[in-house]
Amino acid sequence: MMHVKKPDPLLNAQGKPVRVCQVCGTVSYSQAGVHPQCAQEQADAVRVARYKAESKAASRKDIAGAQPTSGPWQKSCPKCHTHLHVRKRRCACGYRFW
Fold it and tell me: What would the DSSP string read from start to end of 59-71?
């Protein structure tokens, strides 16, 4: 006759509690409970935010102070320095392209 009670499976055995990373929310393999990559990202967050803000401010200065550059289909008037399409023959200032 077989035993009436079935044995407990090995997966249900009481073991260490599963550590979950506080940053990304997945199971962590490190002793601290946070993945090294997540800890690095968390430590660099302030520096990265400051760098992005500085670069955004610098780009705003560049856009505000920059002169419009002529493109491949534009030419510059030598008299008033406005940019016109290449097919224009006259500028608004009166200069004639020949």
Answer: HHHHHHHPPPPP-
1 located within any domain: no
pLDDT in tens, 7-65: 777 765 566 778 888 888 898 888 888 889 999 998 999 999 999 999 888 877 665 55
User: Distance between CA 46 and CA 54 in Å, rounded?
Assistant: 12
**Does 8 fall in a domain?**
no
Residue 74, helix vs strand vs coil: strand
| Burial grade of 73 (CB within 10 A; 0-12, 13-18, 19 or more) | exposed
Its domain, for residue 85, covers 67-98
Domain membership of residue 10 (yes or no) is no
Same domain, 72 and 92: yes
Q: Supply the pLDDT for residue 49.
A: 93
pTM, whole model, 2 decimals? 0.40
Beta-carbon count within 10 A of 20 CB:
13
